[in-house]
Amino acid sequence: MTVPDPTPRVAEFERRAYGMFLHWGLYSQLGRGEWILHLDNDLIHEEYEGLAETFTAEAFDGRKIASLAKAAGMKYAVLTARHHDGFSLYDTRGLTDYDAPNSAAGRDLVREFVDGCHAEGIEPFLYHTTLDWHRDSHECSPGEFDEYVDFLHDSLEVLLAEYDLGGIWFDGDWSRDDDWRLDERYALVREHQPEAIVVNNTGIGNEGEVSHPEVDSVTFEQREPDPVNREGMDKYVAAEMCQTMNGHWGIGERDFDYKSPGDIIETLATCRARGANYLLNVGPTAEGAIPEYETAALRRAGEWVELHDDVIYDGRPVDCETPGRDAVLEADDDLYYLAFDLSVSGHEDVTVRGDGTGPRTIVGLDREVTVARWVDSDEGIRVLQSDDADLTTLDCTGYPYGTNTVVRVAELDA
């Protein structure tokens, strides 16, 4: 079977590699995650909707957020223009008064986000829910649901007509087993933004599923992606893993279990090794600022991305077998070996040792490798190969004392 070629816009999306997800809305004022309206039985809808009166967005700065994404090595950003609570961060042009211009903010926050992204060279994407608790889309009658889909399409048309987007990210079709009129929805996208990337989150349990022919990327929510088997597909689809920095999409003020810069580096490298993008979420504060820890962690991981930018943005997985989590990527005819779980060299009294050094064998590379070196130090690596180049062994040295790049990258001259 043949594998279809990606369209130029999908190929460009894959080269963006790494993006920032932002879940922010009225729920951020409560600090208990983005699903609190649905999960807290004591929270009355009318009281929740009253949070619009205190939603000032006084610390929200679209360009500052885009600047942070840029420093982190991210190439695109996705903002929740409307989440499941039904509150919109954009000017809905009179479709509803449950939006940011009619809140204490008094501003079109999506406009500020999109303009800020463009100013910093970050591609803006917008998340838009299809599940709407404000309108009971998940449990209304069939007739009411059809009216709701009309409202949804009208809302989307506002977004698509008013903002210059790199893509749109849908979420919520899994909430109801009914006719979402997807052909109409995607026709709206193609009418207004023919080059936009279309993502429709299939959710936990349906990872990697292609839900419609117009979808450009499959999703892997909160777990490492599987390599996508594109043989026999009618069109090439990309893949993207989305993940939270802690256990919540919206800010969780009592959630202390955050990912480290090392966690971020490992997951990004794993995604790229499997041919997928990595969309990492942050939950802004009630006022719209990125919290200090997330800011610091993203900047620190961004220094690693800068050191390995060629392989992260342009690298494509090579079909071969590697030990453990290791992988081989190819970028512009250059080969790179990604080595996980290496230990640090040094005196036994000051070094935490492991079993991470020594020979690592690649099976099925089938290319003659003449020279190998670590990208971070230019140190050479001894290479042994079988006569038919089916087996390639790299004698992986440990990190020099004082360094640890979490995933160490070697360039192979083949």
Task: Provide an overview of this structure.
- This protein is of the alpha/beta class and 414 residues long.
- It is built from ten helices and 16 strands.
- The strands form three sheets. An eight-stranded parallel sheet has the order 5-4-3-2-1-8-7-6. A five-stranded antiparallel sheet has the order 9-10-11-16-13.
- β2 (76-82), α5 and β3 form a beta-alpha-beta unit.
- α6 runs parallel beside α7 (182-192).
- The model has no long low-confidence stretch (mean pLDDT 95).
Spatial ordering of strands, largest sheet: 5-4-3-2-1-8-7-6
Please state the overall shape, judged from the principal axes of the Cα atoms.
globular
> Average pLDDT, to the nearest integer?
95
Look at the structure and give the CATH class of the largest domain. Answer: Alpha Beta
Radius of gyration: 23 Å
Tally of discrete structural domains: 2
CATH superfamily of the largest domain: Glycosidases
Helix and strand pattern: HEHHHEHEHEHEEEHEHHEEEEEEEE
Structural class: alpha/beta
The fraction of residues in strands falls at: 15-25%
Point out poorly predicted stretches.
none
Oligomer: single chain
CATH topology of the largest domain: TIM Barrel
Output the number of helix runs: 10
Distance between the termini: 28 Å
- Helix % is 25-40%
